[in-house]
Amino acid sequence: MIAPTSRSSSVLPIDAFMVPSFIPKLARRSLLLCSVTALLPCQAFAQTTLPQAPTYLNQDQNHDNQSVSVRRMSLDSPGMSSVSVDAQRERLFNELAEEFSTFDRLGHLVRRVSQLVKPSVIHIEAHKTEGSGGSRQSYDEAGSGVIITAGKGESWVLTNRHVINGAAPKEIRLRAADGREFYPDRVVSDASTDVAIMRIDMPDLPPARIGNSESIEIGDFVIAIGSPFGLSHSVTFGILSAKGRRDLSLGTQKIDLQDFFQTDAAINPGNSGGPLLNLRGEVVGLNTAIASSSGGSEGIGFAIPINMALNVAEQLATTGRLQRGYLGVTLDPDFTTADLIASGYDFLQSGALVKNVRSGSPAEQAHLQRGDIIVEFGGRAVESDDHLVAQVGLTQVGKSTPMIIYREGKRYRTEVSLTDMP
């Protein structure tokens, strides 16, 4: 389970819940890593238990199980002949068919995308054992993945680290949409982003087509494919609800570099690592977590933007690790737009305030000082301290990167060459 978004250092028991700071009115709601975990006795595999079937309320009953009368509008009116009624009904059916055709085209598009992408989606079952001494537990964790090409043109399954963390390659069973099962020959992961890749030797399985997560906008339609509750290759549909969700606390797992998409496409335990798609059939995100008080989808899911995930995956495939960029500053996490206005920067919409510059760091060499407000990094506006941390962490080490800062009311431009995180 995940704990919520919070800047506090409170430590919660594994079964406790906190309220995400960006959802202040969301009472008793938690963030859950969307992979399925089933506890088992030592060395035993679990069988997934499906949730109980929902109870449906008859349309002629109210919630107290009392009979109610439903009055239906009649097309008949005084003086209308049966011929005119039939003609009116025919006209209404024709109008309905015209309106339905618009929605039917959208549904047809969703079906085509699902059929096209399913061969690139992989169901994952990772067998893990935890504990020490005589107290050890075995369990299976189910999740999803999507095939990409990385490194030297090799086929890899891109997924979340938390889905496969703690399992050896021979304990990670992969299943394609056609039912074939196989195992990866190499697994590499990064804890700071919760991204993992697994190399496979299945040349006939097609890699997914990758989109540009920078171009997707709030309100765009999206499709999620994964294995909710172990039900592999399930498809759900929704919209992109928000961008730039950061500072989420995922229970005991710390993800340092965050820049999540939010979606209302139904994402449940087991969807972790599966693709979030646009209507062109391109992967734009990697489904990772949900906010939920029930353990199931409540319309708040989170996905890693695919540009970010692929940046990490490419480095993992070529070097075996992520080189995290290091700037060497301490930022003020409480700095807000109100502080900008109070300081006379009412023309600025956002930025990150430098509290301290470390000696000998790239920031010092770029002549940054305490009190500087960083408003642009690498050509992108800085939205907050968390946003800057994510941008710096994923910027190529050694590359000259432009920055724009404000100091004592004046605008300055400088460049910095980041080093690898010490």
TrEMBL record:
SMART domains xref list: PDZ
GO molecular function: serine-type endopeptidase activity
Encoding gene, per UniProt annotation: htrA_1
Domain of life, source organism: Bacteria
Domain PDZ: 316-409
InterPro entries assigned: Chloro_Bact_Ser_Proteases, PDZ, PDZ_sf, Peptidase_S1_PA, Peptidase_S1C
Signal peptide as annotated in the record: 1-46
Annotated source species: Rubripirellula reticaptiva
Protein name: Putative serine protease HtrA
Keywords: Hydrolase, Protease, Signal
Single Gene Ontology BP annotation: proteolysis
